[in-house]
Amino acid sequence: MRPVRLELKGFTAFRDVQTIDFDALDLFAIAGPTGSGKSSILDAITYALYGYVERVGKQVGQLVSQGQPRMAVTFEFAAGDERYRVTRTTPSKGTTKIMLERWEGADWRQAGEGADHVREADAMIREAVGLDYDTFTRSVLLPQGRFAEFLVGDAKDRRAILTELLGLELFTRLRERAGDLARASAASAQANERLLETEYAGVTEEAVAEAEAAAVAAASAERALSEAEANAREIASRWAAAEGELREIRRCAADARAAARAARGSALALQDLGVQLLEAETAARDMTKASARGAKAAQRAASARAKAEGQWGRAPELAALRTKAEGLAEREEALGEAEAEHETAAARRPSLEEAIRTAEAELAKRAAAAHKAAAALEAAREAVDRATHADLVAAVRAGTHPGEACPVCGAPVKTLPKTSKGAGLDRARAAAAKAQDAAESAERMTREAERGRDAALSAARQAANEIERLEREVAKRRKELTATGRDVAKAFGGTLPPDPVATLDERIERLEVLEDEESEARETAQEAERAANLAERARDALLGSVAEHRARLDAVPASGIVERARAIAGAAFTAPSFPPLAGVKKDAGAVLELAVGLADGLEELAEGLDAQAAEREEGERPFLSEADAVVEGLVESPGTLAGLLDAVAEACRTAAAVRATTQKEASGMRERLDNAAKLLDEVAVERGRAATFDALSRELRADRIVAFLQIEALQILAAGGSRHLSTLSGGRYGLAFDEDEFFVIDTWNGDERRRARTLSGGETFLASLGLALALSEQVRSLSVADRARLDSLFLDEGFGTLDPESLEVVVEAIEQLGGDGRIVGVITHVQELAIRLPARIEVEKSPRGSRLQVLR
Fold first, then answer.
1. ∠190-196-198 over CA atoms, to 5°?
2. What does DSSP assign to residue 803?
3. Looking at the domain assignment, is residue 137 inside a domain?
4. Alpha carbon distance 729, 824 (integer Å)
5. pLDDT 10s digits, 823-842
6. Which of 466, 490, 514 is the last residue of a domain?
7. For the chain, N or C: smaller number of CB within 10 Å?
8. How far apart are CA 328 and CA 332, in angstroms?
9. Which three-class secondary structure state does DSSP give residue 787?
10. Contact, 836 vs 808, CB < 8 A?
11. Are residues 741 and 817 in the same domain?
12. In degrees, to the nearest 5, what angle opens at C-alpha 485 toward C-alphas 479 and 486?
């Protein structure tokens, strides 16, 4: 498996979309500060491939970035010649979704049915990668905490990883398949043996010969019966010809009697039809006359109604005119009411005009008083101003002496002004307040006078408008009364009668009487017409029945029966005479006579044919005796020729069935004998196969070849890891594998052997790295399957504990591991290691989330 491209969003520290393109990378470092998300890159790969992350297991929803609703990882990878893309998404709370795609031609397509379901897609990915999760994280992607498990872990787990990684399960499958084949072959042999003992018991050459002899005898019996049946049928055909002529004479006689019955039936029916037809024709004439009388009465009633409508008009028109006549009185009353209202309104006009003059005089009086009060108020205010000035002068003078500076203008004071006493200002202010009250009262009275004048004007305007409206209403009512009177008078020749409504009621009532008379006459005429039509139809129906019986007589095959009788009985046969059919049409009497003649002649013909049949009848006995001699000894005679033929036919069918059954049994017996021989051969073959595959299954047991290959692979890996560890440790340490466990050889201490699990942390890191490098190098040569190609290796542990010299050696070893199409990634926060590698993926922390940057 070789990674191609990784895209992740909302995964641990990577909130926003981040992408890594591995196509241009060979040997590189994944570098960044602690906690930036370096190891999360490897977690994203295992999540995409297996839905599993070491630190949280299957609870991957814990890895959704804080504040994000879900995480999504898309991982493209190559496996051999195939290229895949898996997209796995998980919400913070909910179910994981997946889609596995395969690159086909120039586009991505779903990698088969079920590739969008987690269970099916996981199985497809496992098959494509060729490794399960445990093997993948011990050989391809080595996360923190699992780096040294292959070195110091459980021996059973280590063997399982090798079995998965090197494809050794192939031998397990081969052993299981060999066991299945051995058991299947043994079961098949046992089944065939049971079949031979049960279904094929008694199948011998003697039994087959006996069955074949029985088949030959049955075929001979069938041939004899077939010949006898053919001879008997020839005799029966001669009897059938003689019997056919006799049957034809009898059939012809029966047809003549049937035709005679038909003609006789028509004759009886025609007797009744003659009486009924006479009655029907009389009724039709009477009803036709009654219909004509009813039509004339209806015409007279219609003329009377039309004449009245011509003089007065139709009923709807009279009803409309009556409505207008009823409205004349209403319109006269409305006109009187309108005139009275107009007079009343006109009488109020002088009083309204007088009220306006009175209101205007009062307003003029109030306005003059208000003007006088305003002048008095102005004089009072001027008096207040003078008194105030005098009071201020007195206040200034009180503290000022001649020769001093004036407190107002600053000039020297020569003489002091005269002043009045303070009581003058109070009197002025009181007079001004009294004048103010008088002016406001006068103003209020003026506004009241204005409102009175405006109310009088408004009432006068309203009265004038009402008088004008009533004048228009009077004119309208008078016009309507005149028009209605004119319309009503027109119906009476221009002169209104004393009571036009009563007159119109009389006319309407008369028209209704005339309409009723017309309707009654029309109904009587229609009823008479219907009765006449019914009588005519009854007469026509009777005439039709006569015609039908006449047609039936035409259909009686009298001439055809006579011709058949002459053909059967010979030229000596004398046929009866029949009445001529031509010229007889619908006359009931003539048709009756024709029917009686036909019936008599046909009955005479039938009697003559019966006599011929009696003369020819001689029986089948001679033919039966001849047939009995033909089939003598083969079947028992039932006493009739037809019964004998049926017995011979049944015997033939039975012989044919016996012959077919015996032949089938003989053929089946021969086939079963051949099958038994084949089954014996198959039993021998299956027993041999079962023995061969059972031996192969025992040889492929896990504690033999698989265990041998596992030990060999571990020893080879130990040797390769020893070379790398010697280089990494400066020649001090080597690796060995013994007793299903790795040992470290300390050359500085006399080649002392120590178990790998006793090493210190730094020593364990170096030994694990050496073993991982050896596994990555040699897995192709050790594997028995092509799918175990380790085209990539990711290391995530321990570089920070190395001293500078050890770090240098590790870098050189990793550099040698790169190339040959393999991709190697090292996760580290050691800057010295990161900058030594040809490329690196920098992981940068930020408040928004970590970001990735590829540097070369």
1. 100
2. -
3. no
4. 21
5. 888 888 778 778 888 898 99
6. 490
7. C
8. 6
9. coil
10. no
11. no
12. 90
